[in-house]
Amino acid sequence: MSEVKIVPHGDASMLVEWGAVIDPKINQKITGLVSLFKDQKIEGVIDFIPAFSSLLINYDPRIITFQRLKKITEDLLTIEISNNQLKKRIFEIPVCYGGEYGPDIEFIAKNAQLTKEELIQIHSGTDYLIYMLGFLPGFSYLGGLDERIHTPRLNNPRKAIPAGSVGIGGSQTGIYPLESPGGWQLLGRTPIKTYDPEREEPILFEAGDYIRFVPVDQATYQEIEAAVVAGEYQVNVVEEG
Questions:
Q1: Burial of 187 (0-12, 13-18, 19+ CB in 10 A)
Q2: Helix axes 24-40 and 66-77, enclosed angle (nearest 10)
Q3: Least trusted range by pLDDT, from 74-88, 149-163, 171-185, 223-237
Q4: How far apart (Å, rounded) are the C-alpha atoms in residues 177 and 167?
Q5: Residue 83, pLDDT above cutoff 80
Q6: How confident is the model at residue 1 (pLDDT cuts 50, 70, 90)?
Q7: Is the confidence at residue 145, as pLDDT, over 90?
Q8: What is the pTM of this model?
């Protein structure tokens, strides 16, 4: 318990902190705590906002006090959760690399001293842990990008990056869920809507899930895009554990 700090965060939020280290083991503890809370169905707890090494819990102080919520949290933190107890969800996201969808792929490959084919193989060869969501609705901060393809951001950010663009910014990779300005180097695009306000669950995945990029050609991209628009495409989710 000494490694975890539990403090008020305003009048209706509680912050659980594990320090300032980005570590998959800490992320597992955060995901595990959220899972335990959801199983308990504690009245007055509204929602959870995971970050790299902390968890913000929003609650209704008219229903549950900070001290009561803190005690529940301390009790739940004593429960050990193994990898086998947590189901690992891997979202397979199709990506068309290069061309009009990835205008910076040549630079990224050259910067890494790789061919485009090697770059694509490396980028799509990892299951990326979603540490947190933010910046834009559904924007995922992913861990696990291979050091060989770390790439500096653009000197001059673009004013508009298309929704679905997959990019690299420094040591991170991710998907732009909406059209927005941005400075990441773009190597591809997915036709999947990772954020859709019309869906029952607008954001496709949660912190603690994984993303696996699956290379597809342009024709397949367009087929999937048409199916997404028609509401006929289902993202493949692999469950492990």
A1: buried
A2: 120
A3: 74-88
A4: 12
A5: no
A6: very low
A7: yes
A8: 0.79
Q: Is residue 87 over pLDDT 90?
A: no
- State how far the Cα of 183 lies from the Cα of 66, in Å rounded to an integer: 40
Retrieve residue 15's tokens.
Answer: 């912050």
| Residue type present at position 157 | P
109: left (phi over 0), alpha (psi -120 to 50) or beta: alpha
Contact 57, 73 (CB under 8 A): yes
Side chain identity at residue 97, one-letter code:
Y
Q: Let me know how long the chain is.
A: 241
Apex 73 CA angle, 71 and 76, nearest 5: 110
φ, ψ dihedrals at 8, nearest 5°: -65, 150
Q: How confident is the model at residue 78 (pLDDT cuts 50, 70, 90)?
A: confident
Q: What are phi and psi of 57, to 5 degrees?
A: -115, 120
Alpha helices in 14-65 (DSSP H): 24-40
pLDDT at 82: 54
Compute CA 130 distance to the chain's CA centroid, rounded to the nearest angstrom. Answer: 3
CA separation for the pair 229, 32 (Å, rounded): 35
